[in-house]
Amino acid sequence: MLQADVAIVGAGAAGLSLAHRLARPATGAPRLSVVLLEAPPGPLRAPRRTWCFWEPAAGPYDAAVTASWRTLRVRCPRGRVIEGDITPLRYKMIRSDDFEELVARDLACSAVVRRVEAAVDTVQGIAGGAEVQAYEGDGRPLTVRARWVFDSRPLGSLPAARTTLLQHFRGWFVRAGRPVFDPGAVELMDFRTPQPEHGLSFGYVLPVSSRQALVEYTEFSREVLAPDGYDAALRHYTEEILGLRDLEVTSSESGVIPMTDAPFARESGPSVFRIGAASGATRPSTGYTFAAVQRQTRAVAAALRAGRRPLPPSGHAVRSRAMDAVLLRALDSGRIDGAAFFARLFEHVPAGRLLRFLDGRTRLHEDIAIGLRTPVRPMLRTAAELPFLPRRPFTDP
């Protein structure tokens, strides 16, 4: 049996970020022992993925950042280009392998964090803390007792919601034989893709150099595509829309992110808390998660060191979640054209302010000003009906 002050279940972005913060010495703070439980290789371990976020020029994970940009582009359905400079922010791309390698180097030097490879079976409260039951790679049972447990594993099912859309995507890491990409700008949303009946779709291009990029096809809709539908959409986007026919695909990634107005519980017992996407860190209107995870784990680490009960903060402010609920319902009901909605926002709101809005860092008067750039009547009608809509369990399509 292992004993610690803190046990962290899962070694994705949230689990690793919290372990990394607790591994760093803090002047005047008590030294906390930490056990990080990571799933063994196999279906329980999160697949490789790419995270994007924005922050001021310098950040704590810059050594693992693949590329960053200060210019964002949005392309309207008919091809008109909207371009914005987000200085002093930088839009950053980090791959999970690089992030894990950076954190692993620091944890290897830590005297307080112990990494254990084990499949967690149960987490339950006990007197004065919580107990984790797990199995190591060779099948041996393992018990971990801790004062506090933070569980970052994906939920088995989503909480009941009024609206749940899926952000589903496939990306190709591609290499071209000649310079074809602009490494100075991100193609954030290219709406020249065919639009679904409900929701929206867009292309997304993250250029690492003039010859290398991550190119993605993304949809916000009720149902995922057939397995071969994503590659077909990517071929259409790269060949017919971007005009690139000789790209070498070096690797790929896929994902499905629930975009929901469901309330997420942040605690499952007096000493057991959820962190990351399982606690609502994913922004319902966009799917961005990494920046909220950093805010959440920073607050948890500060509370632990101060001797306070470390309830993780909500991933996003109440006002932000309320506005997202209106947007999701308006998209799902077909009251607004998703491509026109986002294109209009980027056209009329400075890109830097819009990113602050998406991070929940704008003030009320700024939120109102941004709201006036949306289709006001459909949004007001949707806001008026939301309180009367029932929350229903989500059923996988």
Automatic annotation (TrEMBL):
SUPFAM superfamilies: FAD/NAD(P)-binding domain (SSF51905). Gene3D superfamilies: FAD/NAD(P)-binding domain (3.50.50.60). InterPro entries: FAD/NAD-bd_sf. It comes from the Bacteria. This is Lycopene cyclase.
